[in-house]
Specification:
This protein has a five-stranded mixed beta sheet, sandwiched between helices. It has a five-stranded mixed beta sheet with strand order 11-10-9-12-13, with helices on both faces. The mean pLDDT is about 95. Strand 6 and strand 7 form a beta hairpin. Helix 5 packs across helix 6 and helix 6 crosses helix 7. The protein is α/β, with parallel strands linked by helices. The structure holds zinc ion.
Length: about 300
């Protein structure tokens, strides 16, 4: 009998790292969380990533499992083919060869992926998009990003930057986006944008979740902000559908936690925008914030199969 195996998986975010040991069948065996400590600079973050990964491999061995691979997901621009974290605004990576570093430190094959593409991969294969074949995963949080997954593989793009649906222009002359251009989807409809817009109209700060709750309670300004958000998202998703013709759109990230309050009007607004395009199924993500970590494990397993 072959001994039980485990994949070491890490999803590195701007503030925290979600880490896990995952069985090759996709079952999560163990989870850990660690602060990223991005303020310490990228070199210190890399040290922490390697240390945590090494610790997880040790934990697997202590539990009687053989660690077989390491999967890591990071934000920003990621060159998956070379295993390089090319650029990241919130972690500060600039051309960090993370895959090579992890392989050298742990003596295990490693794979590096993009956090949202990893999350989308997991949702498409194990979560809300399971069985759909063609899936667009859209994460709506501080920003908006997407992963286009076809038969279990996420498109990476020529430069590691596919899926930036948050920078589709939806409101020419609208609020300025973090990328510098006015009117991007993310500047109008991300969770942060919802809070900003409400503060602008109501003169008091509120989180997107608070705006959602106030809109549900019938507060008119909150209702207006929510409707504007839904309209902008529908414009963005309609562009996504025109490009990708998917069977299922999976919505994840903080804003999707509003559930039916977001999905029902968004489904209607998307329906209005479909002409000859086939309307996709619109569903909420199913894996929660474990998705990125699970996706990192899937990437590592896929990579192992190719070797
Ligand atoms: Zn932008």
């Amino acid at each position: 009998m072959t001994p039980a195996q485990a994949v070491v998986a890490l999803d590195v975010g701007g503030t925290g790292m979600k880490c896990a040991l995952v069985d090759p069948d996709g079952t999560v065996l163990h989870t850990e969380r660690h602060p990223t400590g991005a303020e310490r600079g990228p070199a210190a973050v890399v040290d922490t990533i390697l240390e945590v990964a090494e610790g997880l491999a040790g934990k697997a061995r202590a539990d009687g499992r053989t660690p077989v691979a390491v999967g890591m997901a990071v934000p920003g621009v990621v060159d998956e083919a070379r295993g390089v974290a090319v650029w990241s605004a919130n972690v500060g990576f600039r051309d960090v060869p993370l895959r090579e570093l992890a392989e050298a430190r742990l003596g295990l094959p490693a794979a590096l992926g993009h956090d949202v593409r990893a999350g989308g991969l997991a949702e498409a294969r194990l979560g809300a998009g399971r069985g759909a074949g063609h899936v667009l995963f859209v994460a709506i949080g501080t920003g908006i990003a997407a992963a286009h997954v076809v038969h279990g593989a996420a498109a990476v793009g020529a430069h590691g930057a596919a899926g930036e649906i948050g920078h589709i222009l939806v409101r020419p002359g609208g609020p300025r986006c973090g990328c510098g251009r006015p009117g991007c989807l993310e500047a109008v409809a991300s969770a942060s944008a919802v809070g900003r817009r409400y503060a602008e109209l109501a003169g008091e700060p509120a989180t997107a979740a608070e705006v959602a709750a106030r809109a549900a309670a019938g507060e008119s300004l909150a209702g207006q902000v929510w409707r504007e958000t839904v309209e902008a998202l529908a414009d963005g998703l309609a562009s996504g559908q025109a490009l990708f013709d998917v069977a299922t759109i999976v919505l994840g990230g903080g804003l999707a936690q509003a559930g039916a309050q977001l999905l029902d009007p968004l489904r209607a607004a998307l329906h209005e925008r479909m002409t000859f395009h086939r309307e996709p199924r619109l569903v909420a993500a199913a894996l929660g914030d474990e998705a990125g970590c699970l996706g990192a494990a899937l990437l590592a397993l896929d990579d192992l199969e190719k070797r």
